[in-house]
Amino acid sequence: MTNQRIDRQAFQNLASGHELRTQAVALDPRLAGAGLERADSNGDGVIRGRQELDALFDLLSHSSPRRSRMRAGVSRTLLQGVAEQMNAPRMRAMIERPGAAVHEAVLALGMNDSSEAEVGALRRQADVLYVGDLPSRRDQVETRSGLLDLAQPADVGRFVEALPLIPAQRQQLRALLLHVRSGARRELGELARIWSQAEAGGTVPARLMLSGHGDHRSVFGEHGEQIDDADVVRLARIMPMAAGQIRSLHLAACQHGYEPRMAPFLAAFPNLDSAWGYAGFSPAGQPAQRHQAIWERATRSLPEGGGRLRRSMARGTRRGEAVRVWTRARGFDGPPLRELALVHREIEARRPLYDDLLAGRVEMNAVRHRELTELYQALQEITAHGDFREQTDAFQTDHTRMRGAALRLRFYPNVASHFTRAHAEAIRRGYADLGSAPPDFARLSRPEAMHAIEELSARVDQASPVASRRLLLLLRRGLGELRESELPAHWIEGR
Q1: Distance from C-alpha of 93 to C-alpha of 83, rounded to nearest angstrom
Q2: 3-class secondary structure, 487
Q3: Cα–Cα distance, 303 to 298 (Å, whole number)
Q4: Residues 49 and 82 in one domain
Q5: Are both 394 and 453 inside the same structural domain?
Q6: 55: burial class by Cβ within 10 Å (0-12, 13-18, 19+)?
């Protein structure tokens, strides 16, 4: 920012005669999640005129870091986004964007509904670029040639071609975006667009936060968005200049703090000084915001080697015991690993309950759900253990399968609802070919669902219609065995 203060009157003067589209606010990572669309008092989709610009300035000030409000009215990141979207040249001329300011910002990739509140809290102490879900749940991105929908392969090609990348990078990025399921292409695409500036010699935020629900290999939301950790790593390899600028990482998702799961990120970002994750469940709501604030303060100014960042900073907070921190100077900071044999004994003690729940012999209740959750955490611990790969193939397969099924048992009503909706036609056709109406698997308890599958199995043999035989196999693998291959991780959220 120049020495001239951009206060309310200066902002009015610089913005006068210009307008800001609320759609642009939602699509621009510098502005998304700041609630600026509330300045559109008449609901016409455009912010303009003295009254709405006054409201816009208030919202900008409220969303800016406290130190920015004292010094310059609003943060550079927010003001730059407004100036460019308004096409206000006088405002743009007054904004300096030194590389250091961009480099020290936080780039937040948010996959779930709570991400916007997290970013709102984080913006009170740092400049933040936010890439998150749109209210429309669509994979829309805004370009100079108009809106593109990355759910469409042709638009993916147009989007990639506009980025400052060499042909080989464009080809690799296009393949990556087409590989990612619809619903998450916008998030990964916007991350790629921001990072592409580094490939052209520019500067990108050095602090990256991935926020959402998590299992052992992905970050996901409530509306079908899911990005695998491997996708972020692959993007980093496509854009090595951007990857080389990342200095600190916050993995705000469950089960991402174990050393083997952090290792791919450490390899993908060669100049990383610190990383924060969770060997267990991550917090939500205000506890999550508190952890993110701790991380932001400790990594501000990008201290070499990780500075003073330690897991003890989260002591006494919700889920603080699950925090794991890595710094270049000190390595991994966490409690000693339990012996694999000890974890295995804990799992075996709970296996009878798991078997009963999986088979539908008992109903779920609060006590069993708590015990299942403890089993699931032990399964996460053993499959992330450094000695796990030294065990037999049968041991590894058994515990990996149990881990996936235990997670889906914990959220069985959600899983059953998604499964029933996704396979509605196959279910209808399979039962119709047998001359009967299907049960509503979305409404059945697990014991009822397992009984229904057993009844269908008794009616189906090699002479049965193909649709019925295929349905039986689908039901056994999906709702019966709760296989990960049949039930995506994001199905555990929402119904």
Answers
A1: 9
A2: coil
A3: 8
A4: yes
A5: no
A6: middle
Instruction: Say if residues 249 and 274 touch (Cβ distance below 8 Å).
Output: yes
Give the span between the Cα atoms of 476 and 14, in whole angstroms.
Answer: 64
Print pLDDT tens along the chain (495 aa). 333 457 788 888 889 999 999 999 989 999 998 899 999 999 999 999 999 999 999 998 888 776 544 344 567 788 889 988 999 888 877 665 555 678 999 999 999 989 999 999 999 999 999 999 887 778 999 998 899 999 999 999 999 999 999 999 999 999 999 999 888 999 999 999 999 999 999 999 999 999 999 999 999 998 878 999 999 999 999 999 999 999 999 999 999 999 999 999 999 999 999 999 999 999 999 999 999 999 999 999 999 999 999 999 999 999 999 999 999 999 999 888 899 999 999 999 999 999 999 999 999 999 999 999 999 999 999 999 999 999 999 999 999 999 999 999 999 999 999 999 999 999 999 999 999 999 999 999 999 999 999 999 999 999 999 999 999 999 999 999 999 999 999 999 877
* C-alpha to C-alpha distance for 221 and 59, rounded to whole angstroms: 27
Q: How far is CA 58 from the centre of its chain?
A: 30
Burial of residue 233 (CB within 10 Å: 0-12, 13-18, 19+) is middle
Structure tokens at 109: 């990739």
- Answer yes or no: do 318 and 299 share one domain: yes
Domain of residue 356, residue span:
340-410
pTM over 0.85: yes
Let me know: does 195 contact 172? Beta carbons within 8 Å. Answer: no
Give a yes or no: residue 1 inside a domain.
Answer: no
Question: Do 248 and 160 share a structural domain?
Answer: yes
| Phi, psi values for residue 239, rounded to 5° | -120, 75
Residue 59 lies in a domain: yes
Q: Do both 325 and 439 map to the same domain?
A: no
- Which run of H or of E encompasses 209? strand 207-211
Question: Which residue among 410, 431, 446 closes a domain?
Answer: 410
Backbone angles phi, psi at 218, to 5 degrees: -150, 165
Q: Are residue 364 and residue 461 in the same domain, yes or no?
A: no
Q: Is residue 185 in a domain?
A: yes
Provide Rg for the chain, Cα atoms. 25
- Angle formed by the axes of helices 393-410 and 412-422, nearest 10°: 90
Judge if 187 and 282 occupy the same domain. Answer: yes
Are residues 442 and 382 part of one domain?
no
> For residue 50, with 0-12 CB atoms within 10 Å meaning exposed, 13-18 middle and 19 or more buried, which class applies?
exposed
| Domains identified in the chain, total number | 4
**Do the domain assignments include residue 144?**
yes
By residue count, the chain amounts to 495
Phi, psi (rounded to 5 degrees) for 443: -105, -10
The SS3 call for residue 271 is coil
Place of tokens 């990342």: 246
